Amino acid sequence: MNQLASESDRQNPVLRGVGGLGGRALYVLTDLGRMGIFLFYALIGLFKRPFRFREVVKQVYFIGAGSLPVIFFTALSSGMVLGLQGYYSLNKFGAEGMLGSAVALTLIMELGPVLTALMVAGRAGSAMCAEIGIMRISEQVDALECMAIDPFRYLISPKFLAMLISLPLLTAVFDVVGIWGGYLAGVKLMGVNSGAFFFGMEQSVTNHEIRLGVIKSFVFALLIVWICTGRGYFVQKIRGAGFGAESVSKVTTQAVVMSSISVLIFDYLLTAVLL
Amino acid sequence: MKNVREATAVTTPAIEFVEVCKAFGERSKRNVVLDKVSFSIPRGQTTVIAGGSGQGKSVVLKLILGLLRPDSGKVLVGNQDIATLGYKSLQEVRMLFGVLFQGSALFDSLTVHENVALPLRERTELSAGEIDRRVSATLEQLGLTGHEDKFPAQLSGGMKKRVGLARALQLDPEIVLFDEPTTGLDPVMTREIYELFTTTQQRLGYTAVIVSHDIPQVFSLANQIVLLNKGEFDVFTDADQIGRSQKRFIREFALMVMGQQLSNEKQEKQ
To answer: Fewer beta carbons within 10 Å, N or C terminal of chain B?
Structure first.
């Protein structure tokens, strides 16, 4: 009788729709819980001994030094475009002296942290996700557990620490190169007074703006490394990801998209709260 | 560490399954892999767990290692229920094991030497010199001298298995679990792995659990055979007993194996 009832239920489109929605909601909640526990263990792993200093240095080199060229060109291009756009807009009101202030504030508070995070998510985040995903499907993570080696301390936490060190530093590089780009476009190309450019910047940029940029870059670093390593770690538990190499490629794409969207959402939230 | 080893006294079986049930999938499409399975794995001997694909052989290994929890029943390692252990106790129990994975599970970014040295570096206080000495000795015993600086991608399937075995034996495990140790290997390499298994077990005296569908070849190594088929199980001390069994699922299994052998022979002739 029960079986008959469940058979007719399964054919009812309304019940099927509600069931599907419920199943989806349960999956999302389970996934969130799983990711929350993952974050907890990854943060605990930061304090566990023995500390993997060489691995952290290696990861800082990969995330930080390896991302420098892409950060340099993105920052230079963004700064120069800001310099040009700012000059044409401010020139209409005869306020081109404010160009330095506009370029610096935009870069330090918004473009620097956000664009650096998006670039690093695309370059280093995807690589981390794929690396851990491949280790998971080839049983390397299981092997660590079977050797009684904590995979969080050994594998995940060094990446967390390296990202938390690298992203704020890369953001600082982005800000400096971006301001230099704005200077090139505004002062050298468009003829804005160099003294006015830097005086406006000095007047408007205070510790508050710099603190906002630094807080943002730390939060973005945590979001990127959490989502990218977490997706890779749970590659076999993600619905619809498939199996083997296909699952790693799908989950890597998903991780980059999710971390980029999270960065943009948190950028607005942090600006709204901290500005 | 000593406490766990002492606790698993010689008189108790190395591992015991007590009415273990395990199923996968959602309620409507439940796939029962183990249904009230009970058997003991005697200390210092070789137990082969055999069965067709998808019959729960690897699940048995994962239950032993605490990577999966049973739906009901107990998996006792020594005298400890592995599913109820906390993180630290579980880590201590896992130190009793060495595992040779189906795909060897070597770390891609580490060399052969670094792979074999990893458990010693991470789990012991030995000096770097002592670790190097031990790793070199193990690699020499397993015929891997000269390959220390190669990466797993540069090794053949058989060599990967040997490196996996070298790594599994580094912490002097009491129990070594072999997950399909000869899958993907040619007959010559398969024989070589079995010989290596026999010599290392004679030398180190570990309890071996071999999960394999390399039937009937793998039976020659066994002191005990556990057959799994569609959730049911039976235990034999001799491969000849399997053919005489009156149980339906065993007869089905024997027929399946015979069919497989015939198709292999046909393929070889072609």
So the answer is: C
CB contact under 8 Å between B119 and A147, yes or no, is yes
Q: CB of B119 within 8 Å of any CB in chain A?
A: yes
Of B28, B101, B123, the CB nearest to A143: B101
The answer to the question of residue A13 being in a domain is: no
Q: CATH: 3.30.43.10, 3.40.50.300, 3.40.640.10, 3.40.50.1100. Which one for B43-66+173-269?
A: 3.40.50.300
* Structural domain contains residue A166: yes
Residue from A16, A146, A150, A248 to probe the interface with B (highest B Cβ count within 10 Å): A146
Total domain count, chain A: 1
B223 or B54, which is more confident? B223
Q: What is the pLDDT of residues A183-232, one digit of tens each?
A: 999 999 988 898 999 998 898 899 999 999 999 999 999 999 999 999 99
Average pLDDT over residues B187-202: 83
Range of the domain at A218: 33-274
pTM of structure: 0.83
Q: Domain ranges for chain B, please list them.
A: 43-66+173-269
Give me the pLDDT at residue B5, please: 47
Amino acid A178: pLDDT: 96
Average pLDDT, chain B: 82
Q: Is the pLDDT of residue B197 over 90?
A: no
Mean pLDDT value across residues A128-146? 92
Cβ contact (<8 Å) for A140 and B118?
no
When scoring B24, B90, B107 by the number of chain A Cβ atoms within 10 A, the one with the most, hence best to mutate, is B107
Contact between A168 and A221 under an 8 Å Cβ cutoff? The reply is: yes
B123-162 residues touching A, CB cutoff 8 A: 123
Residues of A with CB under 8 A from a CB of B: 6, 50, 134-135, 138-140, 142-143, 145-150, 154
Q: How many CA atoms lie within 13 A of A52 on its CB side?
A: 24
| Interchain CB contacts (distance < 8 Å): A and B | 48
Q: How many CB atoms lie within 10 A of CB B28?
A: 8
B97 touches chain A (CB under 8 A): yes
Chain-chain contact of B95 with A148 (C-beta, under 8 angstroms): yes
